[in-house]
Each structure stands twice: as structure tokens, then as C-alpha cells.
Automatic annotation (TrEMBL):
<feature type="transmembrane region" description="Helical">
    <location>
        <begin position="157"/>
        <end position="179"/>
    </location>
</feature>
<feature type="transmembrane region" description="Helical">
    <location>
        <begin position="43"/>
        <end position="68"/>
    </location>
</feature>
<feature type="transmembrane region" description="Helical">
    <location>
        <begin position="95"/>
        <end position="112"/>
    </location>
</feature>
<dbReference type="InterPro" id="IPR036513">
    <property type="entry name" value="STAS_dom_sf"/>
</dbReference>
<feature type="domain" description="STAS">
    <location>
        <begin position="498"/>
        <end position="666"/>
    </location>
</feature>
<feature type="transmembrane region" description="Helical">
    <location>
        <begin position="385"/>
        <end position="406"/>
    </location>
</feature>
<dbReference type="Pfam" id="PF00916">
    <property type="entry name" value="Sulfate_transp"/>
</dbReference>
<dbReference type="InterPro" id="IPR001902">
    <property type="entry name" value="SLC26A/SulP_fam"/>
</dbReference>
<dbReference type="InterPro" id="IPR018045">
    <property type="entry name" value="S04_transporter_CS"/>
</dbReference>
<feature type="transmembrane region" description="Helical">
    <location>
        <begin position="318"/>
        <end position="340"/>
    </location>
</feature>
<keyword id="KW-0472">Membrane</keyword>
<feature type="transmembrane region" description="Helical">
    <location>
        <begin position="233"/>
        <end position="256"/>
    </location>
</feature>
<dbReference type="InterPro" id="IPR002645">
    <property type="entry name" value="STAS_dom"/>
</dbReference>
<dbReference type="InterPro" id="IPR011547">
    <property type="entry name" value="SLC26A/SulP_dom"/>
</dbReference>
<keyword id="KW-1133">Transmembrane helix</keyword>
<feature type="transmembrane region" description="Helical">
    <location>
        <begin position="191"/>
        <end position="213"/>
    </location>
</feature>
<keyword id="KW-0812">Transmembrane</keyword>
Length: 680
């Protein structure tokens, strides 16, 4: 029957009908499902206003986060534009938008800076000076790491690296969706992601301090970049640009309170007030008319061209260098998107497909990478239509307005990044509460945060995953067997140490093990059970063998005195009974409550078989109760229940549906054995 059912499922999955093909197409392009039911008159005005405001907010953020990814401002605008359109077509969440995300920009920027250093670009002169900058170094093919394109300056090579990383991460995400591995997101817990985001935020904050102070310092590579950066900042503190410092302080004093106002009144506002854009406009005008770049040496955004560049393929020879980095970027980007999607879907009463989200985010990275874009993820809350409106706003900026930001100071962009880190940095205030609620989750958060910030960002994600896994394993290692007692009024059993008024059965001990039994904890299960019963069968067998050997030696010594032998046998038997009764605590039967055992592997089944056999050798009956279906199946496959003959009586003697049934059975069995012994 099982093989027939499996064959039927295989035929069902492999068959192809017109309805199934149509459903697959509609699932792959969710816009085809929701667009015909879009209520144009009721929703278009709100979506248009929301999209307009979000698009306006995306302009300064896109330019700012380009700095974090070590790219020119134009590439941030490209990224936000293309990703918004693609996710509107392929995404399943109706309440998030896809764009530039700070943590991913940091990861991309670290890879870009590393490859730039390997290629021989040691300064930042090319970043922010425009695509066609003439003062940037030009490397010929064969120099540096051998991957540089002929005539490609620093800015050109930076976006080439960024686009290649983005393409590779997108391929990973599409492959994950193809192989239906969207479930991996469940292994990234909230505490892990929160700790990782907070640790990365500290790194981002540190990386922006040099722009706030107007210092031109290279980004450190390798591990412990946070400490290296702060050391470099302190050493070069005397070279601070006063103009940039004053501008940074003024912008911080304006943006922090205004962003707080937006957060406080967000329930009453249809869309947030774009204070960032106001600051950018005012700062750009002040820098332009005050000639901050020439008079005070302030770093500015530089030339931002209009229009689009011709599509360009990734640098294939660079993929092996960035493959590992791209994988961590793919996992983080997907986890952030799915967590936000599921949160808004639950709030508004619909479902999201994790695998389809993997496809959507993957193509939001693959397709834009041909147009010199870098990695994206979910960034906020809006509908797909408002996302398209935001894309139109960005298109207007790309075609007309972008060159007007030439005089925008980099320190202003750094302020925008720092102010947007408030949410992640506030998590430090929640640490005491997290510790009170759950110390394990708080520990995972602290370990992940510390590793991400102090050691290495990508390593922090790996350490967080390993810490979570070890915590889960550790919980199964710390579980102990507890003895149960029966309530007086009904047949209900609970832990004797947790409740009062519970009664035990004479000669019968009931125990519960609240964890799965598998290879890693099966020995701990047996040890804990033996300790609670008060009788270790292995030690008892050893003691009996020693006692028997000693008795045999004594019998040989007194073999010539034959008339004393019967008295010796009687004394030996009496001593044996006395020792056995003392070590057993008068327990003749053991009932193991399996209601908390979720699964058994081969080692777990063998452990239960060993417990039963060892105790049966000592005359103690062991039975199981309240086993889950999966546990019963594992016991059956593992040969726990021996062949019982007719009526399957053997299984009833070993496994019971309730504890009460098991207790009554062993009591009746003990009584029957007692009557038999009396008659004998």
C-alpha cells in the first residue's frame, strides 16, 4: 500500500496538464493574479501618494548607501529603480518594497574594497567622482590580480565587482528556490538575525565616522575591522575637516528629532515626511554656493550622470573570488525579506510563498546586475503599485535631476546612514529584557552581535547559526528523567517535584523523559533513568557476578565440610535477596511516559531495547506509554516489539496508549507472578 501511494504521488507530481501549467505560470508571476482584482478607484490615490513619498525618500537613501557599498551615487539609484520594478512583478508580499539595505551594502562594500586592494587601487579617489573621472588610476590588463578590464578606472572596477557579487548571490537564491529550500529561513531565528543586524550596524556606524569627520582613510580588510578602524580614526583625529564636522553635527541635530517625530506620529501620517530630502536639498545648496569642496576641502558626491548605461555582463573570472561572500549575502538578503514578508502577511491576513520570494529576490539581483546594480533586499512597507510609482520617481531623478546633487557633501550622506541605524542600535536597550525572558536567546543575540561587530561580519552569521544549533543540542543534553505521580481525583500523571498531593503506586515507578532520544543523548537518557530508578542494571549484574565468584571460592574452601553446604546456600540466597531488594527500592515495574519524546533514531530505539533487556534480566518489567505515531513507527522498524504470535499480544505488553493502562497491566502482571510464586 505504501509503495502504491508513493507511486501515485510520483505520477501526480510528474504529470503535466494545462491547468497545472497555467497554475505554475501564475505562481511564478504573482502580478497576473493580483492585478486584475486591483480596485483602481479605491486604491490608486493612496498608492500613488505613498509611492511618491517613498520614492522621494529613496533618492537620498540610495545615494547614501552607495557610499557604504563603495560605489558611485548613480549606481544606488540604478539599484533602487530596477529592483522596485522586478519585485512588483515577481514578489508575493503586498506590503514590502525591495531596495538598498544597509547590512547588505556593508557586505558588498567589504568585498569591493578587498578586490580593489588586490587589484592595486589603494585610494578612494574614484568613488564619488563620477563614472568618467579623469583623475582616477587606470590599470591595464595583467596588473593587480589579473581581473581588471583594460582601461577600467577605480569606479568602473568597483561596480564591476559589486555587480558580479550581486549576480552570484542572485544565482544562489534562484537555485535555492528551484530546489525548494526556502525552509532554510526557519533556521535563522529572530534573535540571531537581530544580533547580526545590530553587530553589522555597529560596523556600519564605525565605517561612516571617517566621513563625518572628513577623513580620507582606506577601509581596513580582514578580521577585527572595527578595532582597526577606531585605531585609525584616533590616530588621524587631528586631520579632521572642520567644515565636514560642523555640517555633520548640524544635520544630526536636525534629522534625529525629525525622524523621531515621524516614528511617533506614523499612525496618523499617511506617509512619512521626507525630512532627509529637505536636508539633502539645503545641504547641497549651501555646499554649492559656499564652495565647500574648493574652499574647505570637503568631499562631495561629484558628477552624477543622467540616463542609463548599456548592459554589461559580470566579470566571470571574478566569480571564484567572491563565491563564498555571495553565498552569505544571498542567505542574509533572503532571510530579511522572508521575515518581513511573513510579518506583514500575518498582519494583513494572507500568505507568502518562501520559495517564490527566493525567486523574486534572486531575479531582483540577477537582472539588475547587468545594469551595474548591487545587492538588494526588502526595505519597507508599501504595495506593489506604490513600488512602481516609486520607480517612476527614481526614473525622473535618473533622467533629469541627478546632476544637481554634484555639490552634496559625503558627510551628509553618512549622517543619513547613521540616523537610519537608530532602530538596530536601540536593541542594546532591550538586552536586559531579553535576558529576563529567555537567557538562551539573549546569549545567541550577544554572541552573534559581538562576533559580527568585533571579529567579522560574515563570520558573525556563521557563529550565530552554530550557536543556535549548539543551544538546541544543549537543551537535549540537559534534560533529566523525572518521576511522575498520579492525581488523586483522576488518572493524570505529573512530576512529583512540581506538584503536591500526587500518589505513587507500590512496586511501580512512572518516569518521563522530555526530549527526543537520539545518538547524542541516548547514553545520558539511560544514566538519568538508572539514577531515578535507583538501580543500575549493569552495575547490579557486575555485583552479582562478583558475589557469585566469591561464593564459589568460599564453597571450594569448605568443600570437605559437606554437611555445612545447605546452610551456606540458604545464607547466600538470603543475602542476595536482601541486597537486590535494597538496590531496587522495591520497584518491580517501570513505566516510561513517551509523550514528550518527539522522535527516535536507531540509537534511541537501541537504548530503549537495552533498558528493557537489562531490567528484565533482573526481574523488572519495562513498558512504554503514550508514544507518538512517529515513535511507534520507529519502534516497529527498529524491532523493539518482538514477534508476539497471535493477536499481536506482544505489542500490547510493551507499548500502551495511556499511563493508566500501562500501570494496570504491570500491576496485574505482578499480581499474577506473585500468585504463581505462592502456588509454586
Amino acid at each position: 500500500l505504501k509503495s502504491h501511494a508513493a507511486l501515485h504521488r510520483l505520477r501526480k507530481h510528474c504529470s503535466c496538464t494545462s491547468e497545472k501549467a497555467k497554475s505554475k505560470v501564475l505562481d511564478f508571476f504573482p502580478i497576473v493574479r493580483w492585478l486584475p482584482s486591483y480596485q483602481l478607484r479605491d486604491w490608486i490615490l493612496g498608492d500613488a501618494m505613498s509611492g511618491l513619498i517613498v520614492g522621494i525618500l529613496l533618492v537620498p537613501q540610495s545615494i547614501a548607501y552607495s557610499l557604504l557599498a563603495s560605489q558611485d551615487p548613480i549606481y544606488g539609484l540604478y539599484t533602487s529603480f530596477f529592483s522596485a520594478i522586478i519585485y512588483a512583478v515577481l514578489g508575493t508580499s503586498r506590503h514590502i518594497s525591495v531596495g538598498i539595505f544597509g547590512v547588505l551594502c556593508l557586505l558588498v562594500g567589504q568585498v569591493v574594497d578587498r578586490e580593489l586592494a588586490l587589484a592595486g587601487y589603494l585610494t578612494e579617489s574614484g568613488i564619488g567622482s563620477g563614472i568618467s573621472s579623469n583623475d582616477s588610476a587606470v590599470l591595464l590588463a595583467g596588473q593587480g590580480n589579473g581581473s581588471v578590464v583594460l582601461g577600467c578606472d577605480r569606479s568602473c572596477y568597483a561596480i564591476t565587482v559589486g555587480a558580479t557579487v550581486t549576480f552570484t548571490a542572485g544565482v544562489y537564491q534562484v537555485l535555492m528556490g528551484l530546489f525548494q529550500v526556502g525552509f532554510v529561513s526557519v533556521y535563522l531565528s529572530d534573535s540571531l538575525l537581530s544580533g547580526f543586524a545590530t553587530g553589522a550596524s555597529l560596523t556600519i556606524l564605525t565605517s561612516q565616522v571617517k566621513y563625518l569627520l572628513g577623513l580620507k582613510l582606506p577601509r581596513p580588510q580582514g578580521w577585527f575591522t572595527l578595532c582597526k578602524t577606531w585605531y585609525s580614526l584616533l590616530v588621524n583625529l587631528g586631520s579632521t575637516n572642520i567644515c565636514d564636522l560642523v555640517t555633520s553635527l548640524v544635520c544630526l541635530l536636525v534629522l534625529i528629532p525629525t525622524k523621531e517625530l515621524n516614528d511617533r506620529f506614523k499612525a496618523k501620517l499617511k506617509a512619512p515626511i521626507p525630512f532627509e530630502l529637505f536636508v539633502v536639498i539645503i545641504a547641497t545648496l549651501a555646499s554649492h554656493f559656499g564652495h565647500f569642496d574648493t574652499a574647505y576641502g570637503s568631499s562631495v558626491a561629484g558628477v552624477i550622470p543622467t540616463g542609463f548605461l548599456a548592459p554589461q555582463l559580470p566579470l566571470w573570472s571574478l566569480i571564484p573570488n567572491v563565491a563564498v561572500d555571495a553565498f552569505s549575502i544571498a542567505i542574509v538578503g533572503f532571510a530579511i525579506t522572508v521575515s518581513l514578508s511573513e510579518m506583514f502577511a500575518k498582519k494583513h491576513g494572507y500568505a507568502v510563498d518562501a520559495n517564490q520570494e527566493m525567486y523574486a529576490i534572486g531575479f531582483c539581483n540577477i537582472l539588475p546586475s547587468f545594469f551595474r546594480c548591487f545587492t538588494t533586499s526588502s526595505t519597507g512597507c508599501q504595495t506593489q503599485v506604490s513600488g512602481l510609482v516609486s520607480a517612476l520617481v527614481l526614473l525622473l531623478v535618473l533622467l533629469v535631476i541627478a546632476p544637481l546633487f554634484y555639490s552634496l557633501q559625503k558627510c551628509v550622506l553618512a549622517v543619513i546612514i547613521v540616523v537610519n541605524l537608530r532602530g538596530a542600535l536601540r536593541k542594546f536597550a532591550d538586552v536586559p529584557r531579553m535576558w529576563r525572558v529567555n537567557r538562551v536567546d539573549a546569549s545567541i543575540w550577544l554572541v552573534t552581535m559581538a562576533t559580527s561587530s568585533l571579529v567579522n561580519t560574515e563570520l558573525g552569521l556563521l557563529v550565530g547559526v552554530l550557536a543556535s544549533a549548539f543551544c538546541v543540542l544543549g537543551r537535549t543534553q540537559r534534560v533529566r528523567v523525572c518521576e511522575l505521580g498520579r492525581a488523586a481525583a483522576r488518572e493524570h500523571y505529573e512530576d512529583l517535584t512540581s506538584y503536591r498531593g500526587l500518589r505513587t503506586h507500590p512496586g511501580v515507578a512512572v518516569f518521563r523523559y522530555e526530549a527526543p532520544i537520539y545518538y547524542a543523548n541516548q547514553s545520558l537518557f539511560k544514566k538519568s533513568l538508572y539514577d531515578r530508578v535507583g538501580l543500575d542494571p549493569v552495575k547490579e549484574k557486575t555485583r552479582r557476578l562478583k558475589f557469585k565468584k566469591k561464593t564459589s571460592e568460599q564453597e571450594e574452601e569448605v568443600a570437605d565440610v559437606t554437611y555445612r553446604k545447605p546452610e551456606k546456600d540458604e545464607a547466600t540466597a538470603a543475602a542476595t535477596v536482601t541486597l537486590d531488594e535494597k538496590s531496587r527500592r522495591s520497584v518491580r515495574s517501570v513505566v516510561i511516559d513517551c509523550s514528550a519524546i518527539l522522535f527516535l533514531d536507531t540509537a534511541g530505539v537501541n537504548a530503549l531495547k537495552e533498558v528493557r533487556k537489562d531490567y528484565e534480566d533482573l526481574g523488572v518489567t519495562v513498558v512504554l506509554a503514550q508514544c507518538h505515531t512517529s515513535v511507534r513507527d520507529a519502534l516497529e522498524r527498529g524491532g523493539y516489539c518482538p514477534d508476539a504470535g497471535e493477536d499481536h499480544g506482544g505489542e500490547r505488553r510493551l507499548v500502551f496508549f495511556t499511563i493508566a493502562d500501562a500501570v494496570r497491566y504491570v500491576q496485574n502482571l505482578s499480581a499474577a507472578n506473585g500468585d504463581c510464586d505462592t502456588k509454586c
